[in-house]
Amino acid sequence: VLCAHVLFYETVPIYAGLAYDAVMIYASALTQALAENKSQCDGTAVFQYIKSRPYESILGFSVMMDDQGDAEGNYSVLALVENEDDPSQQRMKPVAGFTHDVGNDLPRLRIERDINWIAGNPPSSEPRCGFFGEKCDTQPEWRMVLIYLVCCIVTIVAGIFIFRHYRYEHKLACLLWKVEMKDLILLRSDHDAACQKFRSNINDVENGRIPDTDPPILEDPVTGRTQSKVGFYKGNAVYIYHVYKKSIDLTRSLRKEMIQIREMRHENINPFIGACVDPPNICILTLFCARGSLQDVLKNADLHLDTMFIASLVADLVKGMIYIHESEILSHGNLKSSNCIVDSRWMLKITDFGLHEFKANQDPPPDVEELRSKSLLWRAPELMREMNPPPRGTQKGDVYSFGIILFEIMGRIGPWGKPEPSLKYVEERVCNPHHYGGDIYRPPSQELDCPDYIKQCMEECWQEEQEDRPDFRFIKMKLKLLHSGLNTNIFDNMINIMEKYAYNLESVVKDRTNQLLEEKKKTENLLLRMLPKPVAEQLLRGEKVEAESFDSVTIYFSDIVGFTSLSAVSTPLQVVDLLNDLYTCFDSIIGHYDVYKVETIGDAYMVVSGLR
User: Fold this and answer.
1) Three-class SS of residue 7?
2) pTM for this one?
3) CATH topology of domain 175-207+227-486
């Protein structure tokens, strides 16, 4: 009973059907091969009767064998069809099938009943332009491409602006320019000991050593402000510009201007180090330059400035002003020779520009106010006439100031010549030319010993009408002949200038040495005349003079009888001549005797005898 149950099924298992089909296909092919006298061991011959032939499967469908001997799939198409028993319901039923024909790779669809297509027609077998667009001559949609491109550019630009704005706001908030007073090493520049220490500290810094000890911070006992003009900040020598204000309001515009000044970098611009905003020591720090200001250099009579020196200084000044005028600062506003400083390499740098809001509304002491008021000597007439001139000045006003500085450099007789006129006189003459018959008052350029094109340039710079003044680009071209002796290589120029300075310094040292020797001879002669020769010689040798005792000496005091009456009726010069002639006569007399003159005080004459 069990065997009957296992061997006989109402439905044949699919794997059993497939095994049956395989055996029957092989048996049929082998029979045909043997009928044609083929060997049963020749698999290739047997395979020829298997491939590319249909057969009926025991499972009830037809199967097509391809050229490789693989059975092609037998697929049916199912679709929703109305139920015959209940038309309101639909069921999935076969509506078509695929048949394989010999010689065709693709099967053929055989429709057995109508298909209710959604759109009325069967869908296309492939897209209109093919699966890869190869069946259409497609043109790019330039409008969409342009839109995408514009969107990408706008996104990138917006991202850049957002990043830059964030970074800029971060700079404003960080206050990178702020300096703490405790980080400053301050020195009194007018105190001898402090000055000596500062010079030694400068040498230490230049040699790569940082000062070991901090000098005391010296303050004004009244205002509490530090009085130092120079100091050290993080190992750098700095100049300290005091701002006489009680407090500083760090507005956005002020912080913005601080960043602008801090980011300005040019070889002829003195770098801005930072600023201290802690009352009462509100100040601005800039890099210290060893040779001082241009004004100091021009006043140094021992320093010979030849054409190369002058050309280098003027070229540096012009290049620095071009940079300022083409920057966000736009103008200097307080250009003068004391605001042009010279570093150790004899390169001129411009300082004290910008930060007008920071410096505004100051209340300096009278001596500082008087010193700063001298800036009027370089100020343009149109700015001098205004009650409230713009703090940042104007570019044409800077050109006028440059003309005055050029006169200073070429003449070395001050900004307005010799004798130096008073500030009030210059202000009155420059502001009110109509009070003097329309005569325009300017420095005496005709007294200068320089080429005419330089005189013409400075006269164009200080024209009364600002529209008639050139800009610095034109000035640079105008003074091109002056700069013709300079090398294009900055290093070569610096070497040449340093060589000339060294030669000039040797000449100055030689002159000073000769003067020292002359003064030494005068001192020796004076000692020999004032003291006994043995005593004078001991002093000249630097030896200690031992006191001597004598058994008998004679001390003589003389007096001029009636000297008071004579002085009353004589002029001071007559009194001096009288005493000079009288004492000269006495000196010539005692020179023949063993007599030594001790001193003369007024009309008293004291001599000693017996010292030998």
Assistant:
1) helix
2) 0.57
3) Transferase(Phosphotransferase); domain 1 (1.10.510)
